Amino acid sequence: MKPARTKSAPPADRSTAPASASFGPAAHNAWVQRPEGVDLVRRALRPRPVRFDAQPQGVQIDLARSVLVVVDMQNDFCHPQGWFGQKGIDVRPMRRPIPVLQRLLPAWRGAGGTVLWLNWGVRPDRLNLPPLVQFTGKRTAGGVGYAEVSPQDHGPSLVPGTWGAAVVDELPVEPGDITVFKHRLSGFWDNELDSLLRGRGTTTLLFAGVNTDRCVFSSLQDAGFLGYDGVLLSDACSTPSPAYVSRAIHFIVQKLHGFVATSGALLAALPATPRRRPSTPPFPR
């Protein structure tokens, strides 16, 4: 008896297969696979110049290659019931950038600019936090440190996915924004920030958030060491430190690390007509 014949699967309909596929972190930095092979030629980014007043000199940036970095505007720093608030720290200085950013961020996004939230985010087991970082976050045996729970329990402090690590409600994170977690004062240590920015072709970083003399300045300074242009938006930053500390930071930035401007100067220079953002693959948040 002859074995029954099995029907072979019909040939795939190649007419429905995609003609090409893109592989890369951004549309202008991608390989394109086509039927004839893989195209390694990158697309040129069209410059979008924006000129505004700054110190020590006015600047012109390329909106297409610039990112607005907002540092640590998180519940654990800025909300009265957050980690800092429950330590007894006055959070009013940390909340000062909120109304400034509420005006700036929609205009920046509307002009086609990219927003990056650079937030503290520590491991629950603190295995990548050296003794100095753990000590400065706690100070005493009875204190509440990183990844520990405050008396009003909102979860372990500054652990991603918890209430405390989230950006304050007054500053909604939009789908097109990027979020990067850090576990040092500088956002460029032991994480993906530098490679992510380089993959997008970013050359200029504008800094806002808290605290001016700590995470904002540390990140801006390291950005300069790595070759990025740095602009500190002075009124979009704040700190509980004495006023002379911020003045010293502004002086040092102007002298050595870049430029100091105001959000008002930047706002006035942004295109009034919203521009469509370049097509880029979404980034994980």
Question: What this model shows, in words?
Answer:
The protein has helices at residues 75-78, 83-86, 92-95, 97-110, 131-138, 193-200, 212-225, 243-257, 263-269, and strands at residues 21-26, 29-34, 37-39, 49-52, 59-62, 66-71, 114-120, 178-182, 204-210, 229-238, 259-261. The protein has 285 residues and is of the alpha/beta class. The protein has one domain: Isochorismatase-like (Rossmann fold), CATH 3.40.50.850. The strands form three sheets. It has a six-stranded parallel beta sheet with strand order 8-7-6-9-10-11, with helices on both faces. Strands 1-2-3 form a three-stranded antiparallel beta sheet. The protein starts with 20 loop residues before the first strand and ends in a 16-residue tail after the last helix.
Label the overall shape: globular
Report on the biggest sheet: 6 strands, parallel
Could you estimate the helical fraction of the residues in percent? 25-40%
Mean pLDDT: 92
* Domains, number: 1
CATH architecture: 3-Layer(aba) Sandwich
Number of helical runs? 9
CATH-assigned fold name: Rossmann fold
Number of strands: 11
Question: What strand line-up does the widest sheet have?
Answer: 8-7-6-9-10-11
Q: What topology does this entry show?
A:
Blueprint: E1 21-26, E2 29-34, E3 37-39, E4 49-52, E5 59-62, E6 66-71, H1 75-78, H2 83-86, H3 92-95, H4 97-110, E7 114-120, H5 131-138, E8 178-182, H6 193-200, E9 204-210, H7 212-225, E10 229-238, H8 243-257, E11 259-261, H9 263-269
Parallel strand pairs: 6-7, 6-9, 7-8, 9-10, 10-11
Antiparallel strand pairs: 1-2, 2-3, 4-5
Helix pairs in contact: 4-9, 7-8
